[in-house]
């Protein structure tokens, strides 16, 4: 079947099998390997992308379901060399170690802050509970999200 998806602001059209997952489409057909395949069971969140601005685990969405929609991956967040505020906060607050979960964690965090830029620590932890990090213990990730949220809400110093 033919799918046409607006990926990171660019219309992408490919012939795919009906069963092709969005994560496979992004990696294999679009060459965007920032979206990681971690578990194939929706447990880890490494494959999280934005579908029409909402975070989704792309291992649970068929490419056909995204046909005609807008998908943003980690590669589409930065504006040229200018990092997205969430990417910058993860960098500044050391919100990554091995980096495997980071793209999905960043994408889920972007959606979380878009929904509510006045988050508490508990709300960040609850909002990211579907994304697993095996390295950081989450403290620095939570600090990064709270920092980016302050930037978004205009409360940053």
Structure, explained:
- It comes from Saccharopolyspora spinosa.
- Residues 1-77 form the 2Fe-2S ferredoxin-type domain.
- GO terms for molecular function: 2 iron, 2 sulfur cluster binding; metal ion binding; oxidoreductase activity.
- This protein is of the alpha+beta class.
- The protein folds into 2 domains: 2-76, Beta-grasp domain (Ubiquitin-like (UB roll)), CATH 3.10.20; 85-153, DNA polymerase, domain 1, CATH 1.10.150.
- It has helices spanning 22-29, 63-66, 85-92, 102-115, 121-127, 139-153, and strands at 2-7, 10-15, 48-51, 54-57, 70-72.
- A 5-stranded mixed sheet has the order 2-1-5-3-4, sandwiched between helices.
- A hairpin with a 2-residue loop joins strand 3 (48-51) and strand 4 (54-57).
Notable features of this structure?
157 residues, alpha+beta, Ubiquitin-like (UB roll), DNA polymerase, domain 1, 5-stranded mixed sheet, 6 helices, 5 strands, 36% helix, 15% strand
Number of helices: 6
CATH class of the largest domain: Alpha Beta
Strand order of the largest sheet: 2-1-5-3-4
Number of domains: 2
Average pLDDT score: 95
Low-pLDDT residue intervals, each spanning 5 or more residues: none
Strand content: 5-15%
The CATH H-level homologous superfamily of the largest domain: Beta-grasp domain
CATH topology of the largest domain: Ubiquitin-like (UB roll)
Order of helices and strands: EEHEEHEHHHH
Largest sheet: 5 strands, mixed
Organism: Saccharopolyspora spinosa
InterPro entries: 2Fe-2S-bd, 2Fe-2S-bd_dom_sf, 2Fe-2S_ferredoxin-like_sf, 2Fe-2S_ferredoxin-type, Beta-grasp_dom_sf, Diverse_Oxidoreductases
Pathway: Alkaloid degradation; nicotine degradation
Keywords: 2Fe-2S, Iron, Iron-sulfur, Metal-binding, Oxidoreductase
